[in-house]
Design goal:
Largest sheet: 2 strands, antiparallel
Radius of gyration: 15 Å
Helix content: 40-55%
Distance between the termini: 8 Å
Mean pLDDT: 83
Number of domains: 1
Oligomer: single chain
Strand order of the largest sheet: 1-2
Order of helices and strands: EEHHEEHHHH
Length: 152
Protein backbone atom coordinates (compact mmCIF):
# COMPACT_ATOMS: atom_id res chain seq x y z
CA UNK A 1 0.00 0.00 0.00
CA UNK A 2 1.32 3.45 -0.85
CA UNK A 3 2.22 5.75 2.02
CA UNK A 4 0.34 8.94 2.70
CA UNK A 5 2.08 12.15 3.54
CA UNK A 6 1.03 15.44 5.07
CA UNK A 7 1.11 17.92 2.21
CA UNK A 8 -0.02 20.98 4.14
CA UNK A 9 -1.94 22.19 7.14
CA UNK A 10 -4.81 24.61 6.56
CA UNK A 11 -6.60 26.06 9.57
CA UNK A 12 -5.52 23.10 11.69
CA UNK A 13 -6.60 20.52 9.10
CA UNK A 14 -3.76 18.33 7.89
CA UNK A 15 -4.14 17.71 4.18
CA UNK A 16 -3.12 14.13 3.56
CA UNK A 17 -2.27 12.62 0.21
CA UNK A 18 -2.42 9.09 -1.10
CA UNK A 19 0.01 9.66 -3.98
CA UNK A 20 -1.82 8.10 -6.91
CA UNK A 21 -5.24 9.35 -5.80
CA UNK A 22 -4.58 12.89 -4.69
CA UNK A 23 -5.17 16.35 -6.03
CA UNK A 24 -2.12 18.61 -5.98
CA UNK A 25 -1.63 20.30 -2.60
CA UNK A 26 -2.68 23.72 -3.97
CA UNK A 27 -5.91 22.34 -5.40
CA UNK A 28 -6.69 20.33 -2.24
CA UNK A 29 -6.21 23.50 -0.16
CA UNK A 30 -8.52 25.43 -2.48
CA UNK A 31 -11.23 22.74 -2.28
CA UNK A 32 -10.93 22.62 1.52
CA UNK A 33 -11.28 26.39 1.81
CA UNK A 34 -14.12 26.57 -0.71
CA UNK A 35 -16.08 23.80 1.03
CA UNK A 36 -15.32 25.29 4.48
CA UNK A 37 -14.15 22.03 6.02
CA UNK A 38 -17.55 20.40 5.44
CA UNK A 39 -18.48 17.12 3.74
CA UNK A 40 -20.49 18.13 0.70
CA UNK A 41 -22.52 14.89 0.81
CA UNK A 42 -23.73 14.69 4.40
CA UNK A 43 -22.73 18.02 5.96
CA UNK A 44 -20.47 16.66 8.70
CA UNK A 45 -17.83 19.21 9.66
CA UNK A 46 -14.19 18.76 10.49
CA UNK A 47 -14.00 21.38 13.21
CA UNK A 48 -17.25 20.67 15.03
CA UNK A 49 -17.48 16.90 14.48
CA UNK A 50 -13.80 15.89 14.35
CA UNK A 51 -14.39 13.94 11.12
CA UNK A 52 -11.51 13.54 8.67
CA UNK A 53 -12.23 14.80 5.17
CA UNK A 54 -10.88 13.90 1.73
CA UNK A 55 -10.80 15.92 -1.47
CA UNK A 56 -12.73 13.60 -3.79
CA UNK A 57 -12.68 13.66 -7.60
CA UNK A 58 -15.86 13.75 -9.70
CA UNK A 59 -14.08 12.77 -12.93
CA UNK A 60 -11.38 10.14 -12.43
CA UNK A 61 -9.84 10.41 -15.91
CA UNK A 62 -6.22 11.24 -15.12
CA UNK A 63 -5.52 12.21 -18.73
CA UNK A 64 -8.06 15.02 -18.55
CA UNK A 65 -6.76 18.56 -18.01
CA UNK A 66 -9.79 18.93 -15.74
CA UNK A 67 -8.53 16.15 -13.41
CA UNK A 68 -6.56 18.44 -11.06
CA UNK A 69 -9.07 21.32 -11.11
CA UNK A 70 -10.95 22.45 -8.00
CA UNK A 71 -14.12 22.21 -10.10
CA UNK A 72 -13.45 18.47 -10.37
CA UNK A 73 -13.78 17.77 -6.66
CA UNK A 74 -15.37 18.31 -3.31
CA UNK A 75 -14.66 17.56 0.32
CA UNK A 76 -16.16 14.29 1.55
CA UNK A 77 -15.92 12.50 4.88
CA UNK A 78 -14.49 8.99 4.69
CA UNK A 79 -17.89 7.20 4.87
CA UNK A 80 -19.29 9.34 2.04
CA UNK A 81 -16.09 9.00 -0.01
CA UNK A 82 -16.27 5.22 0.31
CA UNK A 83 -19.98 5.25 -0.53
CA UNK A 84 -19.20 7.25 -3.69
CA UNK A 85 -16.55 4.77 -4.83
CA UNK A 86 -18.56 1.68 -3.89
CA UNK A 87 -21.54 2.95 -5.87
CA UNK A 88 -19.26 3.26 -8.93
CA UNK A 89 -17.65 -0.20 -8.70
CA UNK A 90 -19.39 -1.54 -11.81
CA UNK A 91 -18.53 1.51 -13.89
CA UNK A 92 -14.86 2.36 -13.31
CA UNK A 93 -12.71 -0.78 -13.22
CA UNK A 94 -9.31 -1.19 -11.59
CA UNK A 95 -8.58 2.41 -10.62
CA UNK A 96 -11.83 2.63 -8.67
CA UNK A 97 -11.19 -0.77 -7.06
CA UNK A 98 -7.71 0.44 -6.02
CA UNK A 99 -9.24 3.59 -4.53
CA UNK A 100 -11.69 1.50 -2.47
CA UNK A 101 -8.84 -0.71 -1.23
CA UNK A 102 -6.79 2.35 -0.22
CA UNK A 103 -9.73 4.02 1.52
CA UNK A 104 -10.87 0.86 3.32
CA UNK A 105 -7.39 0.10 4.63
CA UNK A 106 -6.94 3.70 5.75
CA UNK A 107 -10.27 3.67 7.58
CA UNK A 108 -9.52 0.32 9.26
CA UNK A 109 -6.19 1.63 10.50
CA UNK A 110 -7.09 5.19 11.46
CA UNK A 111 -10.89 5.33 11.75
CA UNK A 112 -13.04 8.17 10.42
CA UNK A 113 -12.18 10.82 13.01
CA UNK A 114 -9.08 12.81 13.90
CA UNK A 115 -6.60 11.56 16.49
CA UNK A 116 -7.66 14.47 18.71
CA UNK A 117 -11.25 13.23 18.60
CA UNK A 118 -10.17 9.74 19.73
CA UNK A 119 -7.91 11.24 22.37
CA UNK A 120 -10.84 13.23 23.79
CA UNK A 121 -13.65 10.68 23.47
CA UNK A 122 -11.79 7.36 23.57
CA UNK A 123 -10.68 4.69 21.15
CA UNK A 124 -13.98 2.80 21.46
CA UNK A 125 -15.20 5.26 18.82
CA UNK A 126 -12.60 3.85 16.44
CA UNK A 127 -14.20 0.42 16.86
CA UNK A 128 -17.61 1.99 16.15
CA UNK A 129 -16.10 3.53 13.00
CA UNK A 130 -14.91 0.07 11.91
CA UNK A 131 -18.39 -1.38 12.46
CA UNK A 132 -19.86 1.46 10.41
CA UNK A 133 -17.27 0.77 7.69
CA UNK A 134 -18.42 -2.86 7.46
CA UNK A 135 -22.05 -1.69 7.23
CA UNK A 136 -21.23 0.68 4.36
CA UNK A 137 -19.76 -2.23 2.40
CA UNK A 138 -22.70 -4.53 3.25
CA UNK A 139 -25.27 -1.93 2.13
CA UNK A 140 -23.50 -1.85 -1.23
CA UNK A 141 -23.39 -5.64 -1.59
CA UNK A 142 -19.70 -6.09 -0.73
CA UNK A 143 -17.73 -7.69 2.06
CA UNK A 144 -15.26 -5.33 3.72
CA UNK A 145 -12.78 -8.17 4.26
CA UNK A 146 -12.45 -8.67 0.50
CA UNK A 147 -10.84 -5.21 0.36
CA UNK A 148 -8.85 -4.98 3.59
CA UNK A 149 -5.31 -6.26 3.96
CA UNK A 150 -5.52 -8.02 7.33
CA UNK A 151 -1.76 -8.58 7.40
CA UNK A 152 -0.95 -4.91 6.76
Amino acid sequence: MEKRKVIDVVGGIALLAIPFLAFSSDVAREILRRDRGTCQCCGVRFYEDGMMLHASHFDHDRSSRYYNSPDNGQMECIPCHLQTHLSQMDHFGDSNYNAVVQLANLAMKEGFHTWKFYEQFGNEYKERDREMLAQIFERNGYNLWDFVDVAG
